[in-house]
Amino acid sequence: MSPSTKTSRLPGFHKLPLPQRLEIVKEFAGLSDEEAKLLIAEAGLKLEVADRMVENVIGLMPLPLGVAVNFLINGKDFLVPMCIEEPSVIAAASNAARMARVKGGFKAGSTAPVMIGQIQVVDLPNPFEAMLRVLRAREEVLEAVNRKDPVLVKLGGGARDLTAKVLDTVAGYMLIVELHVDVRDAMGANVVNTMCEAAAPLIEDLTGGKVLLRILTNLATERLAWAEAVFDKEVIGGPEVVEAVLKAHAFALADPYRAATHNKGIMNGIVAVALATGNDTRALEAGAHAYAARTGRYQPLTHWWRTAEGDLAGRIELPLAVGVVGGATGVHPIAKIARKILGVTTAQELAEVMASVGLAQNFAALRALATEGIQRGHMKLHARNLAIAAGATGELIDLVARRMVEEGNIRLDRAREILEDLKTKA
Ligand code: MEV
Fold first, then answer.
1. Where is pLDDT greater, at 328 or 61?
2. Structural domain ending residue among the three candidates 371, 389, 414
3. Residue 348: which CATH number?
4. CA 112, CA 154: separation in Å to the nearest integer?
5. Exposed e or buried b for every residue in 62-85, given b needs 16+ CB within 10 A?
6. Greater model confidence, 281 or 333
7. 265 CA → ligand 1 middle, Å
8. What would the mean pLDDT of 78-106 be, rounded to a whole number?
9. Residue 10 lies in a domain
10. What is the pLDDT of residues 124-150, one digit of tens each?
11. pLDDT at res. 135
């Protein structure tokens, strides 16, 4: 393919078998044979399975899977699988969990797994009257949607409630009908969206309006998880560290620019567990950040205070729409193994572990930031990545990384120079 004929307009691409798709991409991007081979190197996920999970698959993208150790949550020990590309995150979570153990570990809890589905009704001459008609038919609508999922109902879940609100929007008044569905151990998007679609004709009959969107909200305010922990002041470095973490928290409370990064650190841990267990990381991010802004001002998702004994106590609370059945959780072999390592059997328990990891991650970040800074530890690990990026292999990786750390000069160009030097001396 010459540069002038290079086009990304590829009709029928999705119908081609995977090897042909890869061949086209290889030619388009000028990939070497070696690069193309790497894309399809099966690392726990067979190409055949991947090809059914999403569209236009041309390969696999493996990421490191680690386990965070030391987690004691509600009196039970957990090894927490985490899939992430960023160094330091797993080490930080493990270290924070070790310190939390001293005062009994994490106490976590969660609401029932209730998701909210939204049905948008437009073209209503009197939206308030339409709202009353829907509210009066609450039982009828709930029964109708529950008939759609008898398995869920049998498992103790199903549509629990129906609420409605009239919105004054730039496109005029509209009625929003909301189904509150206990989705049990699923993430719930499919269950809720199916129910919303099933309810639509009935809602149109009741209101005389037209239904447009039928979709769950990721602002899952009825599916919250929380965790608390006390960190012994001496174990974490003394009363000055308690004070420093409280000041770091105050910064996040006062400034959305800081709160965004504070919450990003929390999501480092939560998303890594989500990815490892085959959960929808984007749904979690959307829910967490929208929840952080629910008062109209973007806030940190954790709160920190000093106990009467002078120790540091923290609490996290956020929506966590995660499942242990359905979607990739039941298809991806590594996700299944990750869940086995974690040993959770319900979505609520998984959410409680994730909340604990989020709190641990935040504690570790604040403690590091408010004391020695994160760069020393981070750059040590980063040095190894740079050594690999510079082309080091085997024992050269550590040799190059160590030299950069000793010099306090951790950069890709320096890694290349050191590697050259080591190779010429070898
Ligand atoms: C880096 O991935 C996460 C931190 O920036 C979190 C924070 O600032 O609290 C260290």
1. 61
2. 371
3. 3.90.770.10
4. 16
5. eeebbbbbbbbbbeeebebbbbbe
6. 281
7. 4
8. 95
9. no
10. 999 999 999 999 999 999 999 999 999
11. 98
Positive or negative torsion for Cα 97, 220, 262, 377: positive
Q: Using a pLDDT cut of 90, give the percent of the chain over it.
A: 88
Q: Is the CB of 268 under 6 A from ligand 1?
A: yes
Angle made by CA atoms 323, 328, 331, in degrees to the nearest 5: 120
* CA 263 – ligand 1 centroid, Å: 8
Measured by CA distance, the residue closest to atom 1 of ligand 1 is 265
Range of the domain at 184: 115-216
Q: What is the pLDDT of residues 280-315, one digit of tens each?
A: 999 999 999 999 999 999 999 999 999 999 999 999
Exactly one of 233, 262, 378, 382 is catalytic; name it.
378
423 catalytic? Reply is no
Q: Is 24 domain-assigned?
A: no
Instruction: Quote the number of domains for the chain.
Output: 3
* 329 and 321 Cβ atoms separated by less than 8 Å: no
Residue 17 lies in a domain: no
Say if residue 3's pLDDT is above 70: no
With a 6 Å cutoff on the Cβ, whether 262 touches ligand 1 is yes
Closest residue (by CA) to atom 10 of ligand 1?
365
> Which pLDDT belongs to residue 425?
86
CATH number of the domain bearing residue 388: 1.10.8
Instruction: Report how far apart, in Å, the C-alpha atoms of 58 and of each of 16, 25, 53, 141 are.
Output: 10, 8, 12, 44
- Where does residue 2 rank: exposed (0-12), middle (13-18), buried (19+ CB within 10 A)? exposed
Residue 185 falls in the annotated catalytic set: no
Residue range 171-198: average pLDDT?
Answer: 97
Q: Residue 95 C-alpha to ligand 1 middle, in angstroms?
A: 15
Q: Is the pLDDT of residue 377 over 90?
A: no
The pTM (predicted TM-score) of the whole model is 0.90
Check 280, 311, 317, 349 and give the catalytic one.
Answer: 280
Smallest CA separation from ligand 1 atom 6, residue: 265
Q: Which atom of ligand 1 is nearest the CA belonging to 248? A: 9
